TrEMBL record:
The chain crosses the membrane at residues 241-265. SUPFAM superfamilies: SNARE fusion complex, SNARE-like. It is a single-pass type IV membrane protein. Involved in the targeting and/or fusion of transport vesicles to their target membrane. Residues 177-237 form the V-SNARE coiled-coil homology domain. Residues 57-161 form the Longin domain. It comes from the Eukaryota. This is Vesicle-associated membrane protein 726. Its main location: membrane. It holds the Pfam family Longin. InterPro entries: Longin-like_dom_sf (IPR011012), Longin_dom (IPR010908), Synaptobrevin-like (IPR001388), Synaptobrevin-like_transport (IPR051097), V_SNARE_CC (IPR042855). It is found in: Endomembrane system.
Length: 268
C-alpha cells in the first residue's frame, strides 16, 4: 500500500513537471512571434538588383565590428533591430520579412548575420555564416576582437565577407551537398542525444523510485521494530494480569479450604 502511494505521488510530480515545461515552451514561442511582428512592422525597402546574399555583419553583443554590402536600403537597420531582439533559447535564428531572410548565428558571445533573398533558402546563408565564423575566429580569436570598437574591423574583414559571400553564391551545389551531410550528422546526433536523455530520464525516475522505496523500507523497519516492542510490552502486561488472577484464585481457594477445615486441622 505504501509503495503504490509512493509510485502514484512520483507519477503526479513527473506530470506536473512536464506541464510546467510545456507552458514555458508556449510562452517562449509566443514571445518570438511578437518579436517577429514588431520587427516586420518596419517596411523593408531595398534599392538593389537581384542578388542572393545582400548584407552581412559580425557583432560582439550589439556592437557591429565589421559589415559588408554592395547595395543600399534599410536592411542594415532592420538587421540591427533583429540583433537587439534575438532570443536566448537558440544559437541559430532566422527572421522572414518582405521576401528576405535575416539569418543569425550566435557563437561564444559573437553574432554573425546575413541578409538574403528568400528564394535562396536557408542552407546557403547558414553555410556562409559558418564560413565567416571560422575565418573570424581564426583571425581575431584573441583579445583583438574582444576589445575592438564598433566598425574597427571593417578594413580587414569586410573584404573577407565579400569573398565568402561570392563563393557561396557561385557554388550553391557544393554548399547544398555539405549542408545535407551536416543535416544527416545533426539528425543522427539528435537521435543519439534524445536516446541518452530518455535513458537519463528513466535513470532519474528509477533513482527517485529507489529513494522512495528505500524510505519506505526504513519506515517499514521502524514500524516492525515498534510493533515488536509493543507486542513484547503487551505480552508482559498480559502475563502480569494472568499472574495476578492466578494469585487471587489461589488465595480464594486457600481461604475456602481454611474456612471449611476450621484452620489447618482438616486431617484430625
Amino acid at each position: 500500500m505504501l509503495v503504490s502511494q509512493a509510485l502514484h505521488q512520483c507519477s503526479n510530480e513527473i506530470m506536473q513537471q512536464k506541464q510546467r515545461v510545456r507552458r514555458k515552451k508556449r510562452w517562449i514561442k509566443e514571445k518570438e512571434k511578437r518579436n517577429r511582428a514588431e520587427i516586420c512592422e518596419a517596411k523593408f525597402l531595398p534599392e538593389m538588383g537581384q542578388k542572393s546574399l545582400i548584407y552581412a555583419f559580425v557583432a560582439r553583443g550589439t556592437v557591429i565590428l565589421a559589415e559588408y554590402t554592395e547595395f543600399s536600403g534599410n536592411f542594415n537597420s532592420i538587421a540591427f533591430q533583429c540583433l537587439q531582439k534575438l532570443p536566448a533559447t537558440s544559437n541559430k535564428f532566422t527572421y522572414n520579412c518582405d521576401a528576405h531572410t535575416f539569418t543569425y548565428l550566435l557563437d561564444n558571445g559573437y553574432t554573425y548575420c546575413v541578409v538574403a533573398d528568400e528564394s535562396v533558402g536557408r542552407q546557403v546563408p547558414m553555410a556562409f555564416l559558418e564560413r565567416i565564423r571560422d575565418d573570424f575566429v581564426a583571425r581575431y580569436g584573441g583579445e583583438k576582437a574582444a576589445t575592438a570598437p564598433a566598425n574597427s574591423l571593417n578594413k580587414d574583414f569586410s573584404s573577407k565577407l565579400k569573398e565568402h559571400m561570392q563563393y557561396c553564391v557561385d557554388h550553391p551545389e557544393e554548399i547544398s551537398k555539405l549542408a545535407k551531410v551536416k543535416d544527416q550528422v545533426s539528425e543522427v546526433k539528435g537521435v543519439m542525444m534524445e536516446n541518452i536523455e530518455k535513458v537519463l530520464d528513466r535513470g532519474e525516475k528509477i533513482e527517485l523510485l529507489v529513494d522512495k522505496t528505500h524510505n519506505l523500507h526504513e519506515q517499514a523497519q521502524d514500524f516492525r521494530s515498534a510493533g515488536t516492542k509493543i507486542r513484547r510490552k503487551m505480552w508482559l502486561q498480559n502475563m502480569k494480569i494472568k499472574l495476578i488472577v492466578l494469585g487471587i484464585l489461589v488465595a480464594l481457594i486457600l481461604i475456602i479450604v481454611l474456612s471449611v477445615c476450621h484452620g489447618f486441622n482438616c486431617g484430625k
